[in-house]
Amino acid sequence: MAEFLTDLKTLRERARREMDKGPITEAYGADVTRVLQVLNEALATEIVCTLRYKRHYYTASGLYSEPVAAEFLEHAAEEQQHADKLAQRIVQLGGKPDFNPDTLTSRAHAEYDASPDLIDMIKEDLVAERVAIASYTEIAKWLGDGDPTTRRVFEELLAQEEEHADDLRGLLERIPHEKKRG
């Protein structure tokens, strides 16, 4: 057995003594209070993104709106799944997910958008995805080995946000150029 590992008797004693801490053990290397704050900010981001995509789905109109609206609806469902994963992780770490609608937009990394134009909707959604990509990349790096489980949650979300950004960029490329002016 390697010397850096804690002996089994000590591990078992700690596990029994600190059962009220759930998954937070002495091996947890992050600041759980700060991690919970970051998770709640990301939760707010995902809720705002869900709402923005839903609004865009319902209000998209024009010649190219049908496939774009379908993409908005798919992204809305995936953003809701992201919110659910974040809320679950918050609870696992002993925190309380913050769904307060009065403070959602002030805590979210991305902005809500009410653009009436289809191209503007796509552009605003792409900007929001790029914001999520940048912030989730920073969060994953910040977490490092201090909280590998939460880091993996952010890495999973990051992969899907990158896919969303690629989808949106593709939509912009497929809509004829003259529709992009404005």
Automatic annotation (TrEMBL):
The keyword Lyase does not apply. Fe cation binds at E46, H82, E129, E161, H164. GO terms for biological process: intracellular iron ion homeostasis. It comes from the Bacteria. Pfam families: Ferritin (PF00210). GO terms for cellular component: cytosol. Its cofactor is heme b. The keyword Iron applies. InterPro entries: Dps-like (IPR014490), Ferritin-like (IPR012347), Ferritin-like_diiron (IPR009040), Ferritin-like_SF (IPR009078), Ferritin_DPS_dom (IPR008331). GO terms for molecular function: ferric iron binding; ferroxidase activity; heme binding. Residues 29-179 form the Ferritin-like diiron domain. Keywords: Iron, Iron storage, Metal-binding. This is Bacterioferritin.
